[in-house]
Amino acid sequence: MIKIAVLDGATLGEDLNLSPLNNLGEVVIYISTRPEEVAGRLSGIDVVMINKVKLNETNLQDTNIKLICIAATGYDNVDIEYCRKRGIAVTNVVGYSTDSVCQVTLSMVLSLATRLNQYTRFVREGDYTKSGLANRLVPPYNELAGKIWGIVGLGNIGGKVASVASAMGCKVVAYTRTPKEGYECTDIDTLCEISDIITLHTPLNDGTRQLIDDNRLSRMKKTAILVNVARGNVTDEKAVAEALLRGQIGGFGCDVYSTEPFDQNHPYNKILHLDNVCLAPHMAWGSVEARNRLLFEMMENIKAFYAGQRRNRID
Which of 115, 216, 231, 293 is catalytic? Predict the structure, then answer.
């Protein structure tokens, strides 16, 4: 019987029903796994399912793991080269969270653009009632229609965001490795200079690490809204925090961080109080529908592997 281990079940949400995995083999589910516990929990296991746990030579070398199923699209937490050398199959899941991440991206942009946090606080704290006025228009806000929306990474998620941005009346420009017909593509510096909204949807690799640095932040409009739903290290987080503190950009939304959760020394602690900042706990990918699609696809990956088929393989 196939022995399957889920190393960080809590990251998939306590409401997700993992019992269908029992139809595939003998399953053990760990709520979370510390780095020093990984190797021991892989002993005797054939298939390991992970979301955030890091797998590399250190914790794989003494195991007989045959298949790693990543509960995500990105795979920077797995040493793919080592797995190739060892003959360990690795799969991910593409496209399961497109609608979910697009929805949260739009939510952040709209909230920041309309200053919604400030307006709702005005009502919530009783100031609207005390004001005696039927309406309040401070701080002023602008419509998105007619603005330039820069998309960094035009894959499934970036493409969906681009289509929604276009439907809202924005002019879309993109920085992407593979230009797509129907979109105006440009270099990253030009995108930073001309865009009113910039949303990040690119994978983390050597070419995108700290892509948004102090230099590119300084090129942005002072009213620009930047939203990162890609990976934390696609930005220079210290530079982003400093840019916000000195009023270099107009707003910032983020759902991903270089360290998750970020600790008390992280630069974003300095911007938590700002009204033009919207930080979320890496939840954009995880709608109920997206997580159910994710589980189904991982199960299909396991079935395909044991049927001798290559499905969603990245090794």
Answer: 231
26 is an active site residue: no
**And the tokens for 67?**
């298949």
Indicate which residue of 282, 300, 311, 313 is catalytic: 282
CA dihedral sign, ordered 154, 194, 241, 100: negative
The DSSP 8-state label assigned to residue 46 in this structure reads S
Our answer to whether residue 231 is catalytic in this structure is yes
| Known catalytic residue at 282 | yes
Half-sphere exposure of 286 (CA within 13 A, CB side): 15
Q: What does residue 266 show for φ and ψ, rounded to 5 degrees?
A: -65, 140
In this predicted model, what pLDDT tens digit does every residue of 170-199 receive, in sequence order? 999 999 988 888 899 999 999 999 999 999
Sheet holding 3-6, edge to edge: 26-29, 3-6, 47-50, 67-70, 89-91
Measured CA to CA in angstroms, residue 218 lies from 222, 242, 246, 279 at distances of 9, 11, 11, 21
Nearby residues of 187 by Cβ (< 8 Å), 6 or more positions away = 175
Tokens 């998750």 belong to which residue? 260
Give the residue among 281, 188, 270 at the shortest CA–CA distance from 237: 270
> How high is the pLDDT of residue 33?
97
